[in-house]
C-alpha cells in the first residue's frame, strides 16, 4: 500500500474514534435518510473528504434495491451441490482453465509476487462477476451510504462509506460510478475500504482501477496475502489457506465452492 493510502486509512480510523459521540443516527426505513446524510457529512469532513465527496453524499438516494438484496441472499442457504449448480460452477471451471492457458505469464507473475495460485484468483473472478461480464448496475455511493445508514450492519459499512467518499474526492470513482448492490467495485467486487487497504495498480498506469482486470486480480491476490495466505500450502477445508478463503466471504457454501473450483482449475 502506498504512503498516501496509509495516511488515508489513518485519517479514517482517527475520525471513527473521535467522532463516535456525534455519530449519525442509523435507521431502518427511508424516512430518516436525509437527516442521516447531513450528520454523516460531518464525519466525512472529519476524514478530510472535500467538496466532490460531500456533494456525492448529498446527491445520494436511499437505495431500496440494496436493502432488498441485503435481506434476501438466499443462495447462501443452498446446499453445496445446489449452490454450485445455480452459480454455474462447471462453466466457471471450463472458462477458467481457458483463461489460465491463454495468459499463463500473468498468473505465474501474480503467484510469484503474492503466493496465491491461479485457480483461486480465477475461481473468485468467475464467481463474483462471470469474469467481468457483469460488475453491477447500482450506484456505488447510494448503495454503500444506504448500508451505512441501515441499522442492521451500520458499524461494518460506515468505514466503507467513508472510503467511497474519499475515492470520489480523489477521482478514483465518480458520484455516478456503478457497482454491485452492496457497493462492491470491479472484477472481483471489492468494498471501498478494501480498495484503500489492498488496492494495487497492477497494470502500472498510475491509478488503482478495479474495473481493469489486472488491477483487480493483483488487488485480490494482495488481499489474500494480507489475510495470511501461505505460499505453497493447501486451501481445501482443514488446510492452512482455507481460513483465508473464509476471510474473503463469510458464507460457508461460497467458501467451499471457491476451494473446489480452484482445485479443478489448478489440476
Automatic annotation (TrEMBL):
InterPro entries: Lysozyme-like_dom_sf, MltB-like, SLT_2. Residues 1-23 form the signal peptide. It comes from Oceaniovalibus guishaninsula JLT2003. The keyword Glycosyltransferase does not apply. Keywords: Signal. It comes from the Bacteria. Pfam families: SLT_2. One of its GO terms (biological process) is peptidoglycan catabolic process. This is Lytic murein transglycosylase. One of its GO terms (molecular function) is peptidoglycan lytic transglycosylase activity. Residues 34-235 form the Transglycosylase SLT domain.
Amino acid at each position: 500500500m502506498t504512503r498516501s493510502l496509509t495516511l488515508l486509512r489513518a485519517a479514517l480510523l482517527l475520525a471513527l474514534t473521535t467522532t463516535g459521540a456525534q455519530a449519525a443516527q442509523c435507521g431502518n426505513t427511508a424516512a430518516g435518510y436525509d437527516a442521516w446524510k447531513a450528520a454523516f457529512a460531518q464525519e466525512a469532513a472529519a476524514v478530510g473528504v472535500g467538496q466532490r465527496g460531500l456533494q456525492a453524499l448529498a446527491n445520494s438516494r436511499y437505495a431500496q434495491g440494496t436493502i432488498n438484496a441485503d435481506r434476501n441472499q438466499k443462495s447462501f442457504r443452498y446446499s453445496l451441490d445446489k449452490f454450485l449448480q445455480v452459480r454455474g460452477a462447471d462453466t466457471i471451471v471450463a472458462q477458467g482453465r481457458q483463461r489460465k492457458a491463454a495468459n499463463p505469464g500473468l498468473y505465474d507473475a501474480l503467484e510469484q509476487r503474492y503466493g496465491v495460485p491461479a485457480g483461486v484468483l480465477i475461481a473468485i473472478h468467475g464467481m463474483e462477476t462471470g469474469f467481468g461480464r457483469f460488475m453491477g448496475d447500482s450506484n456505488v455511493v447510494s448503495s454503500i451510504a444506504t448500508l451505512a445508514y441501515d441499522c442492521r450492519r451500520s458499524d461494518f459499512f460506515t468505514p466503507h462509506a467513508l472510503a467511497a467518499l474519499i475515492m470520489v474526492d480523489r477521482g478514483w470513482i465518480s458520484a455516478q460510478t456503478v457497482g454491485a448492490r452492496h457497493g462492491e467495485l470491479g472484477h472481483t467486487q471489492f468494498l471501498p475500504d478494501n480498495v484503500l487497504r489492498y488496492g494495487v495498480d497492477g497494470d502500472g498506469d498510475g491509478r488503482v482501477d478495479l474495473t481493469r482486470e489486472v488491477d483487480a486480480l493483483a488487488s485480490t491476490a494482495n488481499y489474500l496475502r494480507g489475510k495470511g495466505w501461505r505460499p505453497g500450502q493447501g486451501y481445501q477445508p482443514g488446510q492452512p489457506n482455507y481460513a483465508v478463503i473464509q476471510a474473503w466471504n463469510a458464507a460457508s457454501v461460497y467458501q467451499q465452492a471457491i476451494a473446489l473450483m480452484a482445485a479443478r482449475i489448478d489440476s
